[in-house]
């Protein structure tokens, strides 16, 4: 069974368009924050400073099923799988309170890169954190 990580997100007025609904690019920020919590921001910062390793979005696909509105507190549900030694596949869903289906679904492919933007194996410390 796939482990699901939960991350709350507060919808602020600044996140919305003129109609009070979240402006679509902001979902990528919410999903990024949730992934950062899965891996751990301190670990990510250390890897970059000490080893020059980081992660980049290789591919992103979002499906919008329902509008998300100002002042809601939503739940981002994140799961992932490893796809070889360089890439992770993330499924992320943003759920509105009391909803029967996710408002937004994202499939994100991430790769591990060095400072010269060359593919690198996902570090053991990251794998341990994600799988632990």
Give an overview of the whole structure.
This protein is an alpha+beta fold. It has a single domain (5-131), classed as Hotdog Thioesterase (Thiol Ester Dehydrase, Chain A). Helix content is 25%, strand content 37%. It has helices at residues 26-39, 41-51, 124-131, and strands at 5-10, 53-64, 73-83, 87-95, 104-114. Strands 1-3-4-5-2 form a 5-stranded antiparallel sheet, with helices on one face. The protein is elongated, with a radius of gyration of 16 Å. The two termini are 14 Å apart. 21% of the residues are buried. The model has no long low-confidence stretch (mean pLDDT 95).
Strand order of the largest sheet: 1-3-4-5-2
Uncertain spans: none
- The ordered H/E elements are EHHEEEEH
Put simply, the count of helices is: 3
Count the E strands: 5
The CATH superfamily appears as Hotdog Thioesterase
Could you say what the CATH architecture is? Roll
Task: Describe this protein with a few key phrases.
132 residues; Thiol Ester Dehydrase, Chain A; alpha+beta; five-stranded antiparallel sheet; elongated
Give the SSE layout.
Blueprint: E1 5-10, H1 26-39, H2 41-51, E2 53-64, E3 73-83, E4 87-95, E5 104-114, H3 124-131
Antiparallel strand pairs: 1-3, 2-5, 3-4, 4-5
Quick rundown:
With 132 residues, the chain is of the alpha+beta class.
């Amino acid at each position: 069974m796939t482990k699901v990580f939960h991350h709350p997100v507060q919808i602020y007025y600044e996140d919305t368009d003129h109609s009070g609904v979240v402006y679509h690019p902001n979902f990528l920020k919410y999903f990024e924050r949730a992934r950062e919590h899965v891996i751990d921001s301190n670990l990510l910062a250390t890897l970059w400073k000490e080893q020059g390793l980081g992660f980049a979005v290789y591919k992103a696909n979002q499906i919008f099923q329902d509008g998300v509105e100002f002042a809601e507190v939503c739940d981002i549900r994140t799961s992932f799988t490893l796809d070889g030694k360089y890439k992770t596949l993330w499924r992320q869903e943003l759920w509105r309170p009391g909803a029967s289906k996710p408002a937004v679904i994202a499939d994100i492919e991430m790769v591990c890169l060095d400072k010269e933007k060359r593919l690198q194996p996902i570090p053991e410390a990251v794998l341990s954190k994600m799988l632990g």
